[in-house]
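Hi R.,

Here are the chain sequences for the assembly we discussed:
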Amino acid sequence: MDFDFSADAIALRDSIHRFLMVEAAPEMLREIWETASGRSAALRAKLADQGLTALSVPESHGGMGLGDLEWVLVQYELGYYAIPDSLSDTAYLAAHLLQHLPNGAAAKQDWLPRIASGQVRVAVGHPVNRLVADAELADLLLLWHADEIHALRRDQVQLAARTSIDASRRLFEVRWTASDATRICSAQAGAALWQAVHDRATVALAAQLLGLAQRMLDLGIDYAAQRKQFGKPIGSFQAVKHQLADVAVKIEFARPVLHRAAYALAEQQPLASIHASQAKLACGEAALLAARKSLQVHGAMGYTWEADLQMFMKRAWALDASWGDRSFHKARLAEHVLADGVRLGPGETFAIPEPAARATRAVRSATA
Amino acid sequence: MTEARPALPEDELFRAEIVAWLDAHLCGDYEAVRHRGGPGDEEADPVLRRRWEQELARGGWTCVGWPKAEGGRGLSIAQQVIFHEEYARAGGPGRMGHIGETLLGPSLIAWGTPEQKARFLPGIRAGTEFWCQGYSEPNAGSDLANVQTRCWQEADGSWRVQGQKIWTSLAHESDWIFVVARCVPGSKGSKGLAFLLLPLRQPGISIRPIRQMAGGNEFNEVFFDGAVAEAGHIVGAPGEGWKIAMGLLEFERGLSTLGQQMHFLHEFELVLDAMRRSGRTHDAQLRQRVAQAWCGLRAMRYNALRVLADRADAGLRREALIYKHYWSNWHRELGKLAMDVLGPEADVVSDDPLIRRLQQLFFFSRADTIYAGTNEIQLNLIAERGLGLPREPRPAAA
Ligand SMILES: Cc1cc2nc3c(=O)[nH]c(=O)nc-3n(C[C@H](O)[C@H](O)[C@H](O)COP(=O)(O)OP(=O)(O)OC[C@H]3O[C@@H](n4cnc5c(N)ncnc54)[C@H](O)[C@@H]3O)c2cc1C
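And here is the predicted structure of the full complex:
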């Protein structure tokens, strides 16, 4: 494989980047943080205008029919701007579940077009997370029950809000009763779908974490250039430079791991889960390092509410533990590597299954 | 060498005494502040904790390491360790008086006039006067010698202060502030500074809280507009402010922190509790980090005991130099470990006291490598003063 993204995917990413730069300034994040629901209908509408809610809904249901490779670039931008919205749960995870439902024609017809047009929010409750994100404003909740998939409307569940340290996440304990009427998919078919959703969530968070890492690095660079001590910008001190350079190295080494994982999803490769775990670990590490180093570079200023850095740090800390924390993903990798008969030899390093043709889709590195 | 001298009978008696005292006094109303008020939790019931300080003082349990002649208890090192161990074990509330007790008090004992000692030490000891530290300014953080706050002497000998301090922890809960200010107009760097003591409640001072990352307001901006310090309330001579300020920092960065170590031990135990509770004691990665943290904790303890044991000797300076860097990095990592042990619970605000405390630990410990001298500054000091390496190039006096 090479690591090129298609020109269209790059163009999409660039336009989202420019759009969010204008629409999602830190002041706006703060405003949304302070609201009761923590969500902004106006922001959601703008995201829909950009086509993001339609991204992976099939064309037959009013969407753009794109996939994991486009999403990974978009998720990075959502992370970079710490977008407080359930876009990813609705338009990536739920859209994926719905469109792959066996015999789910009715549900597809009901929900996919409305997801595409940005009219609805859908929450996804997977057992790896005890709490369900964005349940309150959800029109529909897709919930796990012994590998079955259940679909409930907001008025069929009871919610108790749980406050996250990251005010841009809105988490809920969801109480509900599974019944034949709520079940839209059997356990037999559901298991693989839930796995696919977990993998996608893992890669989505990995991408957001990488975007966050880059944002925190950028904030650190800006601060180090402006802030003067001893008559010089602190960025001229080697001890400060090296902190930031360390982060840059981590980010650049995480990026291909992330893209490789997205590719594995797109190609439905058998080891997609392993790639996803590796990506989340690599990107999470970059984000945690970026938080630590950028805070250090900011000095006491970084410890304040007023400095934007805190919003991105909290997001990174929270996302790193969500959809499987570091222990979870490391254990998964260890199990894979140590399993009997795993092919890890030199010949396997760059091995990719066919069709290799599609492997030539993407790279210009997405360096922001 | 011995790890520690064998416990003497009087030490064990002493332990029994403090245990019994805490048992009899840290109860009733004070239940509410047991285990509260430590780093990251400074805003927990300051009124009650103030009362507690006075309760402690009546029992003779403040300033236990000060010499008897200065109103302290004159405890041996071994007994101080015992005191702090038992205080932490009993869940003694975070000490509101620690800035006075461990920073200003020892500095006054070292460099204060008899009048200053007579005026200020009793209030610190009695838990009736609380202090905060007015060093940092917007343009004088790591470069502390760049302070721009000015002071001058009036005809009656009193001092006036004009300028601004920032990041002043607990100014809003304190009665007095010690301030480093420029007394020689046009002077630069560490020359021409004075070390002044000012009451905070006066017309020339206003305090504005700064909200911290975790939401609380532990620190403040403090503005001085012709604020007054009495003629006698300058420590050292005008122009000697830097010497006093640095001496005090040595107390801060050094081993004023036996109590803090016991607190670390307690926090470490909380992390273990959380690990057991979450059923993660079999998680290989967490186990390794816990073992690592324990090693660090022991190393700090041995180092502290070693240094304290030969306090008289000139070794102190150099050890004090390394200590801050070591504990702050260790503690920051403990904070992260606490979150990882909690897993996904870590980022949900909780009423559960254990989770809440570990979250406070996590947030507060993000700042450990910043206050009281950043990591980078500590390492520069170790390299330059400790190892004698050439000094970092500095720009010609800015
Ligand atoms: C929770 C908290 C409580 C505090 N309480 C108090 C208080 O009560 N009283 C008080 O006076 N102050 C207090 N402070 C302030 C503290 O002393 C300063 O934050 C600290 O001295 C660093 O200064 P700064 O924040 O301005 O960072 P800066 O000096 O701007 O440093 C920013 C970054 O640049 C690096 N840097 C700067 N100079 C160099 C150099 N020469 N070489 C290499 N790297 C360099 C630093 O290490 C840091 O990483 C507190 C701070 C915090 C976070």
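Chain B touches chain A at residues 136, 139, 141-143, 146, 166-167, 210-213, 215, 219, 280, 283, 285-286, 332, 336, 339-340, 343-349, 359, 366-367, 369-371, 374-376, 379-380, 392, 394-395, 397-398 (CB under 8 Å). Residues 312-316 of chain B have pLDDT under 50 and may be disordered.

Let me know if anything looks off.

Best,
T.
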